[in-house]
Amino acid sequence: xxxxxxxxxxxxxxxxxxxxxxxxxxxxxxxxxxxxxxxxxxxxxxxxxxxxxxxxxxxxxxxxxxxxxxxxxxxxxxxxxxxxxxxxxxxxxxxxxxxxxxxxxxxxxxxxxxxxxxxxxxxxxxxxxxxxxxxxxxxxxxxxxxxxxxxxxxxxxxxxxxxxxxxxxxxxxxxxxxxxxxxxxxxxxxxxxxxxxxxxxxxxxxxxxxxxxxxxxxxxxxxxxxxxxxxxxxxxxxxxxxxxxxxxxxxxxxxxxxxxxxxxxxxxxxxxxxxxxxxxxxxxxxxxxxxxxxxxxxxxxxxxxxxxxxxxxxxxxxxxxxxxxxxxxxxxxxxxxxxxxxxxxxxxxxxxxxxxxxxxxxxxxxxxxxxxxxx
Length: 375
What we know:
- Helices cover 56% and strands 14% of the residues.
- Strands 1-2-3-4 form a 4-stranded mixed sheet, with helices on both faces. Strands 5-6-7 form a 3-stranded mixed sheet. Strands 8-9-10 form a 3-stranded mixed sheet.
- It contains 12 helices and 10 strands.
- The radius of gyration is 25 Å and the shape is globular.
């Protein structure tokens, strides 16, 4: 999940804050206000000894939580970079962090290393923070309080992510252990199944205990594991397939100076939701039916195609592997990319076409593999 407010960069990696972060602030402030004495007692201090108010501590704990998640994710991305992967950004949100990494190593040992380093970073922070908490016990109550909960937040992040529930870090380690024996697709399916079973257990526990945050986490584990398992199967089915094999060469072109009315008419005539756009100075882009539909119909005679078309899309070479093209599309969150062969634009590669090809292969491949050989 990309997007959100860009905060800053760490070694060239943009750090973004998703809007769901702001759901945590009132919840923590409310929890602190209701049970501040219990929180203080847990940190071996008293409510009266603390200088900061419950609301302020609620905000501080939210900052500590997301700072801890950021350090956890940085552990992942620094190892990914050392393995030659490109890191696009990190997004912090309600249920943790998401690192957007391109060309992740598929070697099981490398995946296990990248997965386990995040929890290890969190556990290391927990140990250091708890040791510091003991040093300041009885000397600086507010610092003691903050260090105690910094320790517990990181311990919870580290141990929870080691649970073998795909797509959590522990689930990725489980897949890397299973992959040498079962292959990537089967190992992913097993890890995702384990993740779904554990997510059901978490969801039931959350409902019975009234912990709805745990229910949300259970839904995330179920949905995330299932979606990634499907994506891995599709990628495996497309292994070795070249872009040209799935390129739609019948996409009509329009000029950037033409009206959106004209573009819409061409789409209707060709029954195509995307058109190639020839812009000024030889630029090539795409315009989709959604781009046209976002402009009110009464304004489409006055607006031109180049005002809504995307010219910043990467070009996919016809000889490229489809999976490499998908990586580029994922990075920019694109549904279509133009395809070039030499100096000629020959068509468009669409995510929908790729998905249909993978689905067809999944449906037919077992029967095709088991068909009798021709004598």
